[in-house]
Prior knowledge:
Elements: H1 6-53, H2 60-94, H3 100-132, H4 138-145, H5 148-157, H6 161-185, H7 194-221, H8 235-241, H9 246-250, H10 252-257, H11 267-273, H12 280-285, H13 312-330, E1 337-343, H14 364-373, E2 380-382, E3 386-387, H15 393-402, H16 425-431, E4 435-440, H17 449-455, E5 460-462, H18 480-492, E6 500-505, H19 521-533, H20 540-565, E7 572-578, H21 596-604, E8 605-606, E9 608-611, H22 614-618, H23 623-637, E10 642-643, H24 647-655, H25 659-662, E11 690-695, E12 701-705, E13 710-711, H26 723-727, H27 734-751
Parallel strand pairs: 1-6, 1-7, 3-10, 4-5, 4-6
Antiparallel strand pairs: 2-9, 3-8, 7-9, 11-12, 12-13
Amino acid sequence: xxxxxxxxxxxxxxxxxxxxxxxxxxxxxxxxxxxxxxxxxxxxxxxxxxxxxxxxxxxxxxxxxxxxxxxxxxxxxxxxxxxxxxxxxxxxxxxxxxxxxxxxxxxxxxxxxxxxxxxxxxxxxxxxxxxxxxxxxxxxxxxxxxxxxxxxxxxxxxxxxxxxxxxxxxxxxxxxxxxxxxxxxxxxxxxxxxxxxxxxxxxxxxxxxxxxxxxxxxxxxxxxxxxxxxxxxxxxxxxxxxxxxxxxxxxxxxxxxxxxxxxxxxxxxxxxxxxxxxxxxxxxxxxxxxxxxxxxxxxxxxxxxxxxxxxxxxxxxxxxxxxxxxxxxxxxxxxxxxxxxxxxxxxxxxxxxxxxxxxxxxxxxxxxxxxxxxxxxxxxxxxxxxxxxxxxxxxxxxxxxxxxxxxxxxxxxxxxxxxxxxxxxxxxxxxxxxxxxxxxxxxxxxxxxxxxxxxxxxxxxxxxxxxxxxxxxxxxxxxxxxxxxxxxxxxxxxxxxxxxxxxxxxxxxxxxxxxxxxxxxxxxxxxxxxxxxxxxxxxxxxxxxxxxxxxxxxxxxxxxxxxxxxxxxxxxxxxxxxxxxxxxxxxxxxxxxxxxxxxxxxxxxxxxxxxxxxxxxxxxxxxxxxxxxxxxxxxxxxxxxxxxxxxxxxxxxxxxxxxxxxxxxxxxxxxxxxxxxxxxxxxxxxxxxxxxxxxxxxxxxxxxxxxxxxxxxxxxxxxxxxxxxxxxxxxxxxxxxxxxxxxxxxxxxxxxxxxxxxxxx
Length: 761
């Protein structure tokens, strides 16, 4: 056959005419293939999230439908664009590839990449929402991917049983779907693909419109759909946050410095919400003298009028008892070692002493300490109704050392405010001659903790890199037993005459609850016996969490036993509390929908204890009086709601009469902010019966009255992207923003290096 042979020319023309129909047909098949693959990728996360959220409201299947409806407009729109581009690329490749099957395999590979990305992204996003009540932003993702522990944790999420079966089935479905696609694509291409194109466009449009319609109508379909916010799509949060900086996402100090919604009239109410005197706004804005700090005042005897409707009487009673206890314990003591232990994700809902539905034996150490607080001669203070200040460790850390855990817009002063000159617990202790030490089994740079701690005077940080190479490491961190025991050993190695503040943060009881390598066999056996006898359906995920819960309790018990048996007991003070609660599945609730009271308990209630070693009490001049004062504090604090923001005030009150703090001028003995229950000034102008305010484990603002009733103002602390969105998020806390803005543009600007709070470009 010659090049001029008419049959050759006809064949070439025929192939050319067939190229476009074949390519368009493949593109249309690919469109349908992508949509179905996407459904497979979305289902594991949606089913698991719906199962969790059904604890609060609604039926799980309805929440799955709502969740898929929420996802569909964003997903279909994105994938429609992908298919337009993909079809154009396919047409171009079809003209050049000798093998049409190679093109179809390339389409499968591209779809597989999208499938795996959506599967991983939605599973990780749903677990993030379970933990914190919010979907992650692009900043959360970038920060997490830069941290090895975070990556390990994210990968470990896949192996939780609530996701494992779902993604295995989804993967199997995807494989079968891909096989069917390849088989179908091997059939002859249609000569006229227009009808198929129209049909496919109609189907995609119908799916998008149906999703959008359900998205808009879902709150009205049934009362069970009223929980719309808890299953809204993660895609808008992520895509909206792309290309923005941390400061734009969380707003941070930019919002405060620029007075976003912060009129002068809000300063006094904002000061009251931070436990400060009524004139604090004026004093921080109109700075006449940079020394002393304008917000410092004594714990026990307020120097200024607390104002009407404040907590003055109760705070004064507690302050008086604490002050006398400080005299009895520390007045003649040259050296004090403070052990401040933050227990990761430790919620009251899992502790039998604080929740009667929990079987005994899971946390024998914490249960035993609560029992000891009720003894005739107690050595333990147990605040049985303490509530968290924030949902993240960085917020808990800010509460434990600065009293600033509850901030507007979900901020953390430890991470988001550019290290402003707040005078915190460690600053005071540093000035009094204490050496400051931090013990942590993971990366201290996460959430800016390292910078925050150095900024506030910590001399030494012992973190994951400081442990020997063969130290067991699982999940997020070096196991708690090693961290706590090494802290005791390091303390004993320091100069004998120095006072110490030792801050220890545990991590073993952190999602995804990987069992530590040094988990004692007896702990695991005890957990399984308790689970078997509980009458609850305890699955593999619950067992992992209960193992790490009991392990952390065991590690704490070991530390206390070693401390009590050591020479350090005679000059030690031990403070124990959760860094925050967790919204992980509520096993002991029996699967029933949580009532308002149960929800408050489960999402915000954390343990808090102060332990006075036996040798410390024995060495006092009047041990009987010490026991009596501790008993008085248990009566005052035991069943009254308290805030995590009260912790630094309480610690400083207990140390106030010691030799170290007594050397400081009175105006320098106290930290910046006042707390809540223990502040004589705290009040919420819009809710005068409120004694505690905070952000729960679902990132929602809550208020608690003196009677213990929870008032939910329905204000979720969602991500903030701009000025307008900032004004609509947690508006109850806007007076706080006003006061903090005045503080940063007044005192901070004039008395501190402005570089520490300047706008980051």
